[in-house]
Each structure stands twice: as structure tokens, then as C-alpha cells.
């Protein structure tokens, strides 16, 4: 390959700055787009491809397709063209290094790191697959890591171009270590071929090595035709079985057994990562990469494009080179073992003419010939078309009518229940064989009896495989949806479906299955300080059960308030788990002021207190000597239920009521009611009082005597 010199121009626009790396098919240069003033990478293809006009035409078509692919996980192709003997692509200039360099620096990756790399690779690759493109050369050398830790896939379509240029020479195109079996044996290349190569990359990320080896690249390539890729866990510890299964599916020898494309592989990878709770991971940038070495080379375009940038393609080790190998020779078609050579028996010599000398003999011969002709005709009819009947059309008939129709046509009817989007239940949806076909009379004809549209089967806690089988029996397919929490369905089993179970759907409908993640995690709420009833209601709303309620005195917490919860608030539980509460047993002294002594005592006892004593406060005046004016402890105080005794305070003095003009009996009742005595005698109860001492409104000590003066 004739190397371009620093300062050379491609199409008077792209100025060569420095050679970066040499690959198997091209040379990569750091250069400057003089029109846009930015640093780019120029991939200049090997001269051996230039002279081929078919290759140049395919190059333009493939380059145009590559340029239309835009995704953060793909290296962008900005431009393509030819300049003299140079055919080139202008690409995004990537800072950082290659995945090959990262593996060389750090060795095998843990599952979460490998998953992070492959998620980015498969995301970019799925974009290409949706556009109808197949990469054909997935390998660590074509997986780049930018300076901002973004993983990008490069070199779409180049192997396809090389393959087209050598298609007539029975050669294998690609890197031996990562080839799919189809690329080795020459069968059709599909997105599943990229899936195989990506599976090999995942194996290498986990173990630090590719699964196969050989004395020559061809021997290495042929290994995958006869051997399965081993489980990564057989080469290195710490690889979960789900990752082993993921690699096994991606690298199945038969393309039909693999993920069909990158999107399906990516979905499976995300499912496994979620199942294993793999943490997120930022892919590191290689420290000792070709990009770093290239950036150290002085450039005379710094003022134009800013600080030196780096491209990550480097000369790759021998095993990573994209190579052309001799393909397997074509296999001659085999002759079936039961095949025989056709031959033709020699015809017997013609009989000599028979003399017909007798009229009688002639008549006899004519009769015999007529009889033989009739027999042959009848036999020919029977053994030919006469044995066959035409299967009648029974579409839309009721089952019984369809059975009778088939019987009348000379066939033996049998029925088979089938699903139909159009034919009502218990009507014929057709026959097998189809109507109008010929069949020997007496043979069985299957009448297809409609049971209507299929309904979505009930999950009933099935695992996914069992549900897939149940759905398949109803012509339905299954796809995985987001896992959901379920308190009723065991983790890993089907919790719900879309459409819902029992819903009638068209034949072939795809049912989305949501697998249970088990009970939803619930954090113990903050219920401390709430009344017990409110706390129990809050816990019940979350599906938590109060297993026990203990009581404890707390001088700062009113009675019935929650003091503590176990487990502690914020602890993660699941629906149905139990919690224990500690509730304040503190008693609050009720306010019984203004009540009479008996009512106050009853009120206190109902609240859990006992009246241990009664005292009078001579400094307090009340309306009655039995009216409570206070308690000790006072109303509102918090009391330990173990020491819940109350002393009632009654007034020591009362206001003397006005009894003048009353009879002695009336006055005695009134005065005694407020706690005062009288000097009047019972025999004077009917006499009227004319004067009293102390006077009405005066204050007197409880139990003191009011002197009454009686009128005449």
C-alpha cells in the first residue's frame, strides 16, 4: 500500500496529518477537514481493491449505507470518495483506545463490566441490523472506547466489500477467532452471524481468551464447525450460570438456535443483568493506546483544529487481523442410496399375423374383443378416476351438516377443533385435505370445526416455559415484558399478561408476559408519635401486619401514642411481613373541675385512676362544698399507670345562699346542699324565715352554721 505523506490532500479537502495504524485492508490517518476545520480519521483502502470497477461500485453503495447509520454507539462515517489511486472513508475521530488494548491492560472483566461493554456494542449493532446491514467482523479491534468512556462499533461493511472482491476465489473473509460457522462453510450470512461473533467477544471479555485455537488460522476457523463454545465458567471462576447460558445461545452452531439479531441478544442481556442485579459500569479508557501515542506526535494544524486528537485504530496482533482464507471446497451432491438407474425392457417380438379363415372364428374374436374392451374400460374407470372423489366444500356449515356432506361424498368424516378468527364457534372452518382436492373414496377427511378466536390462557403461577407451551397450543406467541412485583405469585413465575387472561384475540397474537419479581419491597413507615389506630391503619395500607403491641410508660408521650416500631422505620420488608409496636401506656389526668365529687370520682375511675383522698382548700370559694375545684396531680398531667392515684380538691368556703322568706324546711335543704348547717329545729320546718346570719352573699366556711330568725 502506497503510504500518503504528511501534508497530502484527499480531494483537496482532507489534509493528511499523521499515519495512525495499518489494518489488514486499510491504512488509517489522522487528518484535517479543511472545509469544516475539524479533525477526522481517513481510512484509505488497500490498492489491490482499487482496480476492480465492481468493487468501486459496491464501495460507493456500501459507504453510502454506512454514512446513513447514525448512533452514539457507532463510529460515524462522514464522507467517502476516491482521489487518484486512493479509495477512502472519512470517519469520526475517536479519542481513547480499542477494546483489544483495554483487554491487554486489564485482562478478564467481571460480569458487570463485560455486560456494560456488550450492552453498548449490541445497541449500536442493533441499529445496523434494523437498517439491513450485517457487520461480518465483530472483534475487540473494531470496538472503540472514546475519551468520554463511550463504546463505539466501527468498520461496518468493509468485510462485505472484501468478500465481494474475492467471491470467485473460494476464500474466507474475516478474523479467524471471531468467524461464525456460516462464514467458514460459505452458507448465507445473516444478522445471526454477527450475534455469534459478539458472543465470542463476550466470552473473551469474561475469560481473557477466545474459545478455540489452531495451528493455522484455517484450522482455528474450522474448529467452530465441529465444536461448541465452552461455558465461560469452565475457564474462569465467578461467572454465573445465566451468563453461561447467554453465551451458549449467542454462539450456537446452528443460526436458528441463536438470537436472531443484536436486538434480541440485547434484550436477553438486559434480562440477565436485571436478574443478577449487575451494577452499572463506566468502561475505562485504555491508558497505553495507539491513540495516545499518535496524539504525542507534533502537528502543524493545532491552530486550526484545537488540541491534538486521537484515533484508536492501531496495528493489531496477528490473530486480530481481518484475513482472507481458503474456504472449504464445495461438497459434491450425494446420490441417494435407494436410487436406481432407469432402464427399458426389450420389447417382445411381434406375433405373427393370424390367419382368419373362418367367419365364425371372426365373430367369436369380435365378441371376445368387445368383452375385453368393456372390462378394461370399467376396470380402468375403477382403478383410475372412478376410485377418487372430490372433497366437498363445507366452510361455514354447522358441524352436523358438514359431517353429513362429507359422508354423502363417499368419505369418512373425522373432526378436529381449530381456532378461527372469522368462523363462528361450532361451524366448519374447512377440511383437511382442502375442498376440491381428489381423494380415494372411503378415506378419512378431517372437518375443521371452529372454536372461535383463541383466548389468552390464564397464567396461574406458571413458569415462562410452561406458559409459552400453553400459549403455543392456542396459536399464540409470547414475548417478555417488564417484571412486576406480586404478593400472590412466586418470583420467576408469570404474574400477569397483556392482553389479560381470558381475552379473545386473533390467531398468532403476541402475548406480553410479565414475570413476578416477588412481593414488592416496602419500607417500614414512620409511625412514631401517631395514635395506635392511625399507625395500624397506615401499616395495613402497605400490607404489613401488626404482630404485637407492647405498652410502656413515657412521661413525655400521651397515652396510646406509638413510642417505637420494630423493625426500625426505613427497613425494607415485603407485603405480609409483621411489625411490632410499643405504645405509650401513660395516663392523662382528665379535667373534672366543676363536677360534684361523685361524678368526678366515677370519671377518674373510668380513665384508669383511683381517688385516694379528698381535701378542702380554705382559700377557695365554691358554689357548693361538694363541687370539685381541682385535682392532684392536676388535669392534663401524664401519669404512670402503676401510680394512678388522684386527690380531689374541694372548696373550703362557700357563698351563703339567700333563704329569707323560705320555710325552715326549704332553707335547711338548700343550705345543707351547699355544705352549711342551720340552727333551726325540725318542728319549725313550716315556719317562715325572716332573717339570716351570715347574710346572703357572704362567704362562710363549709360545715359552718347559718343562724335563722323565724317570723311570727
From TrEMBL:
InterPro entries: Kinase-like_dom_sf, PASTA_dom, Prot_kinase_dom, Ser/Thr_kinase_AS. Signal peptide: none annotated. The chain crosses the membrane at residues 362-383. It holds the Pfam family Pkinase. GO terms for biological process: negative regulation of fatty acid biosynthetic process. Residues 14-269 form the Protein kinase domain. PROSITE patterns: PASTA, PROTEIN_KINASE_DOM, PROTEIN_KINASE_ST. One of its GO terms (molecular function) is protein serine kinase activity. It is an enzyme of class 2 (transferase). It comes from the Bacteria. Keywords: ATP-binding, Kinase, Membrane, Nucleotide-binding, Repeat, Serine/threonine-protein kinase, Transferase, Transmembrane, Transmembrane helix. Its EC number is 2.7.11.1. Residues 385-451, 452-517, 518-585, 586-652, 653-712 form the PASTA domain. It catalyses: L-threonyl-[protein] + ATP = O-phospho-L-threonyl-[protein] + ADP + H(+); L-seryl-[protein] + ATP = O-phospho-L-seryl-[protein] + ADP + H(+). PANTHER family: MITOGEN-ACTIVATED PROTEIN KINASE KINASE KINASE 20-RELATED, SERINE_THREONINE-PROTEIN KINASE NEKL-3. This is non-specific serine/threonine protein kinase. The gene is pknL.
Amino acid at each position: 500500500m502506497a503510504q500518503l505523506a504528511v501534508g497530502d490532500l484527499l480531494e483537496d479537502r482532507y489534509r493528511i496529518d499523521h499515519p495512525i495504524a495499518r489494518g489488514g485492508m486499510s491504512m488509517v490517518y489522522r487528518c484535517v477537514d479543511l472545509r469544516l476545520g475539524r479533525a477526522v480519521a481517513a481510512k484509505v483502502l488497500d490498492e489491490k481493491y482499487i482496480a476492480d470497477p465492481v468493487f468501486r461500485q459496491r464501495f460507493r453503495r456500501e459507504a453510502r449505507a454506512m454514512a446513513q447509520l447514525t448512533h452514539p454507539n457507532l463510529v460515524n462515517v462522514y464522507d467517502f470518495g476516491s482521489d487518484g489511486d486512493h479509495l477512502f472513508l472519512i470517519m469520526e475521530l475517536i479519542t481513547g483506545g480499542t477494546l483489544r488494548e483495554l483487554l491487554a491492560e486489564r485482562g478478564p472483566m467481571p460480569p458487570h463490566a463485560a455486560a456494560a461493554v456488550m450492552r453498548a456494542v449490541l445497541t449500536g449493532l442493533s441499529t445496523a441490523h434494523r437498517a439491513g446491514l450485517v457487520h461480518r467482523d465483530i472483534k475487540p479491534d473494531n470496538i472503540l472506547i472514546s475519551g468520554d468512556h463511550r463504546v463505539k462499533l466501527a468498520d461496518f461493511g468493509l468485510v462485505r466489500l472484501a468478500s465481494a472482491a474475492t467471491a470467485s476465489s473460494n476464500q474466507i473473509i474475516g478474523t479467524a477467532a471471531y468467524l461464525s460457522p456460516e462464514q467458514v462453510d460459505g452458507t448465507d450470512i445473516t444478522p445471526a452471524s454477527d450475534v455469534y461473533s459478539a458472543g465470542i467477544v463476550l466470552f473473551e471479555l469474561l475469560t481473557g481468551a477466545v474459545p478455540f485455537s489452531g495451528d493455522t488460522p484455517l484450522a482455528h476457523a474450522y474448529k467452530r464447525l465441529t465444536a461448541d463454545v465452552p461455558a465461560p465458567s469452565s475457564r474462569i471462576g465467578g461467572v454465573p450460570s445465566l451468563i453461561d447460558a447467554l453465551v451458549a445461545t449467542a454462539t450456537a452452531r446452528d443460526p436458528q438456535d441463536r438470537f436472531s439479531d443484536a436486538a434480541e441478544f440485547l434484550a436477553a442481556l438486559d434480562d440477565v443483568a436485571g436478574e443478577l442485579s449487575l451494577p452499572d459500569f463506566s468502561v475505562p479508557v485504555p491508558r497505553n493506546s495507539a491513540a495516545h501515542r499518535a496524539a504525542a506526535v507534533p502537528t502543524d494544524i493545532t491552530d486550526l483544529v484545537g488540541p491534538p486528537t486521537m484515533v484508536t485504530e492501531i496495528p493489531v496482533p496477528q490473530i486480530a487481523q481481518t484475513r482472507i482464507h481458503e474456504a472449504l471446497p464445495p461438497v459434491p451432491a450425494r446420490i441417494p442410496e435407494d436410487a436406481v438407474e432407469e432402464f427399458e425392457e426389450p420389447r417382445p417380438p411381434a406375433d405373427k399375423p393370424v390367419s382368419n379363415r373362418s367367419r365364425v372364428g371372426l365373430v367369436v374374436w369380435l365378441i371376445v374383443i368387445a368383452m375385453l374392451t368393456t372390462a378394461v374400460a370399467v376396470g380402468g374407470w375403477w382403478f383410475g378416476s372412478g376410485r377418487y372423489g372430490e372433497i366437498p366444500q363445507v366452510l361455514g356449515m354447522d358441524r352436523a351438516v358438514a359431517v353429513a356432506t362429507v359422508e354423502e361424498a363417499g368419505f369418512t368424516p373425522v373432526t378436529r377443533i381449530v381456532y378461527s378468527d372469522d368462523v363462528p364457534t361450532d361451524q366448519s372452518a374447512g377440511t383437511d385435505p382442502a375442498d376440491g382436492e381428489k381423494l380415494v373414496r372411503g378415506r378419512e377427511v378431517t372437518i375443521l370445526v371452529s372454536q372461535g378466536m383463541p383466548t389468552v390462557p390464564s397464567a396461574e403461577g406458571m413458569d415462562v416455559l410452561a406458559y409459552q407451551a400453553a400459549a403455543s397450543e392456542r396459536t399464540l406467541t409470547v414475548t417478555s415484558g417488564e417484571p412486576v412485583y406480586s404478593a400472590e405469585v412466586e418470583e420467576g413465575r408469570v404474574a400477569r399478561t397483556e392482553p389479560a387472561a381470558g381475552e379473545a384475540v386473533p390467531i398468532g397474537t403476541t402475548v406480553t408476559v410479565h414475570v413476578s419479581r416477588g412481593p414488592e419491597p416496602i419500607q417500614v413507615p414512620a409511625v412514631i408519635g401517631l395514635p395506635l389506630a392511625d399507625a395500624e391503619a397506615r401499616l395495613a395500607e402497605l400490607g404489613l401486619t401488626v404482630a404485637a403491641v407492647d405498652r410502656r410508660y413515657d412521661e413525655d408521650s400521651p397515652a396510646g401514642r406509638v413510642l417505637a416500631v420494630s423493625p426500625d422505620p426505613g427497613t425494607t420488608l415485603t407485603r405480609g411481613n409483621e411489625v411490632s409496636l410499643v405504645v405509650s401506656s401513660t395516663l392523662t389526668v382528665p379535667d373534672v373541675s366543676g363536677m360534684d365529687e361523685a361524678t368526678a370520682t366515677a370519671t377518674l375511675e373510668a380513665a384508669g385512676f383511683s381517688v385516694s383522698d379528698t381535701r378542702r382548700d380554705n382559700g377557695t370559694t365554691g358554689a357548693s362544698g361538694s363541687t370539685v375545684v381541682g385535682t392532684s396531680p392536676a388535669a392534663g398531667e401524664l401519669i404512670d399507670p402503676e401510680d394512678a392515684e388522684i386527690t380531689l380538691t374541694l372548696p373550703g368556703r362557700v357563698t351563703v345562699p339567700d333563704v329569707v322568706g323560705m320555710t325552715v324546711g326549704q332553707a335547711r335543704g338548700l343550705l345543707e346542699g351547699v355544705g352549711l348547717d342551720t340552727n333551726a329545729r325540725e318542728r319549725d320546718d313550716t315556719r317562715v324565715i325572716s332573717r339570716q346570719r351570715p347574710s346572703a352573699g357572704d362567704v362562710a366556711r363549709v360545715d359552718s352554721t347559718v343562724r335563722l330568725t323565724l317570723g311570727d
